[in-house]
Amino acid sequence: MNKKNLLDYLENMQEELQEISEKVWNLAEVSGKEEKSSELFRNILTDQGFTLTEVEGKDLANAFYAEYGSGSPVIAVLGEYDALPGLSQEAGTKRSPKGKNAPGHGCGHNLLGTAALGGVLAIKKYIEETGTEGTIRFYGCPEEETLVGKVKMIREGAFKDCDVALSWHPMNVNSPIETGFLANNSIKFRFSGTSAHAAQSPESGRSALDSVELMNVGANYLREHVIDEARIHYTITNAGGAPNIIPADAESWYFVRAPRRKDVEAITKRLVKVAEGAAMMTETEMEYEIIGGTYEILPNRVLFDLTDKNMQEIDPPSYTEEELQFAEEIQKSLDSDMVEGEIRKFISREDAAQPYQFEGVLSKEDSQVVEVAGSSDSGDVSWVMPMNFFLAATWPLGVPAHSWQATASSISSLGMKGMGYASKIFAGMMYDLLQSQETVDAAKDEFVQRTQNQGYVSPLDQ
Ligand SMILES: [Zn+2]
């Protein structure tokens, strides 16, 4: 079995993979509730002869890895399967939710997990037929949308003994990605004061809500004095009960994001001072809890080059008239200025061969300007071992993640074709890594170099 046979084998598996994707899309289980989706992956992998390991730990019932092969290298492939609240949608090009606030796969994780699965199943066949040394692990990673599943898995040691990790995300273009994701912290600030009748004895009360409001004012002044790329956002999660009771308890929930983890940590320290100041002004007590946090992608040139090589080597999908029509209709359901803005995050419109669906693969140079500005707990994995990252075109140009249009596209043949392409990139990369211990070693050497001055400390332990 050579690389071409491997990719042909995977091509023949596409129908099966599409059915799995459809099942996960229909299950649409949100973060932390992915019981049936993770069970589906577990069952397929154990039926195929993979050895299952459950990841122990609090709230990690839907986390596992399934392993095949023996010896080194040990290659981790990251799979996700969680959906988003409120983004349910019937297949098709018209807005049609499945139910009020029902969840849906608006981030395409039904495709994400299945492409990873396809890659490992094909490579399993290759190892079985050729007796090649090496171990592949499919990681079932829950709770990506709440940015915490892999962070918890890392803390429980789930990724120990792996050499490299492979990952991707459904998107609007086919492209290798070297840098991306904003690092973030998710922090709850809790204030406690003294309640009193707001008219009869206001002088006896110390308002926790005043603290929250003063903290927000301070945070809004802080914005001017942080780096341009930083983002600070908040909501008030407890503001007291009634106007005539001075609130004894109040809580706000903040996200701090920036391109680099060290900036997030520095801004978080300053935000805590703002909270302390608010507590001092109002004579209340303050405590805070970092309930989650993530890292940005740590680049790895060796794996970036290998991803690019495979993306250039393996033919990306082409589309039928009907599929392009679907892409056009989906794009036209969005505001045209927003579409322009979304497209500019990936390509300049003049570069598009046709305006509705991306075709081809971005070059390494063009991939450098792609903005991947969300946050993901996959970033954390790149700080515990060398990791690659790539995007595959599963949604029409202009369709943003976390939209009903993304949910609809993730069950369309456009989504399925993108998933199929991604599964081949995984298989191709694993094939190359199993052939070349030198490449694995070079990726690991680079990782050691890059983490010399900044190691990984779990955001949950900061
Ligand atoms: Zn996602």
Explain what you see.
By secondary structure, the protein is an alpha/beta fold. A 5-stranded mixed beta sheet has the order 1-2-4-3-5, with helices on both faces. A 4-stranded antiparallel beta sheet has the order 9-10-8-11. Strands 6-12-7 form a 3-stranded mixed beta sheet. It contains 15 helices and 12 strands. It has helices at residues 3-12, 14-27, 35-47, 109-130, 149-155, 208-222, 261-282, 301-313, 321-332, 336-344, 364-367, 378-381, 404-409, 413-435, 437-450; strands spanning 51-54, 64-70, 74-80, 134-141, 164-166, 168-171, 175-176, 183-192, 231-238, 249-258, 285-294, 390-393. It has 2 domains: 3-180 and 295-461, 3-Layer(aba) Sandwich (Aminopeptidase), CATH 3.40.630.10; 183-294, Alpha-Beta Plaits (2-Layer Sandwich), CATH 3.30.70.360. Zinc ion binds at residues 107, 109, 144, 169.
- Percentage beta strand: 15-25%
Shape: globular
Helix content: 40-55%
CATH class of the largest domain reads: Alpha Beta
Largest sheet: 5 strands, mixed
- Any idea what the CATH superfamily of the largest domain is called? Zn peptidases
Tally the helices.
15
Provide the spatial order of strands within the biggest beta sheet.
1-2-4-3-5
Count of distinct structural domains: 2
SSE pattern: HHHEEEHEHEEEEHEEHEHHHHHEHHH
Q: What's the average pLDDT?
A: 96
Rg measurement, Å = 24 Å
- List ligands, each type once: zinc ion
Using the 3D structure, state the CATH architecture of the largest domain: 3-Layer(aba) Sandwich
SSE class? alpha/beta
CATH topology of the largest domain: Aminopeptidase
Distance between the termini: 48 Å
Contiguous runs where pLDDT drops below 50 for at least 5 residues: none
Find the count of extended strands (DSSP E, 2+ residues). 12
